Amino acid sequence: MTVKEIEQLSGLTRANIRFYEAEGLLSPSRGENGYRDYSGSDLITLQRIKLLRTLGVSIDDIKALNSGSADMADILKNRIKHIEEELPSLYASRDICMSIIDSGTDYSQLDAGAYLKELEAAKSGLADVMSQDKVVSNISPARRYLARFLDRMLYSMLWMFIYGVIFRNMIFKAPIGSAWFALILMLFLEPLFLTLFGTTPGKALLGLSIRNADTEKKLSYGEAFGRTFSLMWYGLGFGIPIFSLIRMYKSLSADERGERLRWEEDSEQIQTVTGRWQWVLYPLALAGIIFFGSLSVHLSRIPANKGDLDIAQFAENYEQYNIVFEGGSDYKMGPDGKLTERHEQGIIVFNVDPAPEFRYVTENGVITTIIIDYYTERTGVLYSSGAVREAAQTILALAMRNRDAGFLGRAALEAADHILGHPFENYSFTACGLEISCETVLKNCLLQNGRPFPADNGKASPLSDIDCSISVKYVINLTP
After folding, report:
1. Radius of gyration of the CA atoms of the chain, in A
2. 426-441: per-residue pLDDT in tens?
3. What distance in Å separates the CA atoms of residue 243 and residue 237, rounded to the nearest whole number?
């Protein structure tokens, strides 16, 4: 019989059966596949144990009966003595004990089935002593959680690497749905770890491993996949907001009560190694995983073209960094380095704000200077960006191509932020091997909160009908 079959026939849980095996009360044989094979004799033994445990007989006394070193009558008389000291609701146990004694039955001839029916029919409120008959895990919930946390961090960083480096998507903010994609990666990778090594990186570091509850061997890929899927639903709630928190709380509570977790019904987690060195290596491993993720982000931010650039290569880099800005630019740069309005999904974008003009100075086909000219004039309200987005995007396309951009491109991002934070101003500075200057000429305009408005008698007047214009010129020199 399999463990599921003997569970059904005996009415005992798998945890009970494992406990009685661990106590040496039964020793099932093993099949060729390594699974436990329970016999009819094992079923009779379990029924006897169930009866005696329900009557309140201790495990030690049952061991003595099983080994033949104790007499049934003596054990039951001793139990009667304790029952008489307990609550009146336990009288049913005494009556059944007396019935067994009167029959003159010893342990080897005990027919547990008849007495169990009588005991269950009595419904006397006996304590459920068998709920205590299970192997108590010595693995703390904290150790399990930390192992899981390290694994999930690893899967998240692996997804960052796949998304950013392999698929060449620039990462400047968390990709949409990244948490779910990391869970999908976990669904297929974790079973592979469990099948090949019997553990995962996080569990291995903290001395934990997973085994088949029947064979005590590593899980097959199908078993490990089922375990991981069940874990993701019952333990992590598939990352669904609020629901995932509920599932994690319920799983933690069940683990603290010593209950078997839903995803471990056919497997068991064991602790093989302990030591203080684990708590030294853990933060180092976590730091290593975070560094790997940061490195993936850094590599994803490196443009397709590096070093000296011609106009077409610059245009390709420029388009890559469109993702940095919320909503993207309204203009697309072609291989000739000129901007045109974006036409996406049949929608034509009409812009009130004119497109800046890009001019290039080259030497032997290599760009040495980029000039961005922007001019707009209107009567009344101005809708003007001053080409700050295009200028900032240009800085990223040029600065990110070399080491001067710094790790994660921080120096380049700071230079772009400087341009975005100082629209319609005159300035010059050097950053990331670039000499950057901006000249702004405002005619009949004043700045208010960084935005241009028509000027009327020296004051910003949004509703004025005065003719006004704005001219902005960015010059970006690429230093050797």
Report:
1. 37
2. 999 999 999 999 999 9
3. 6
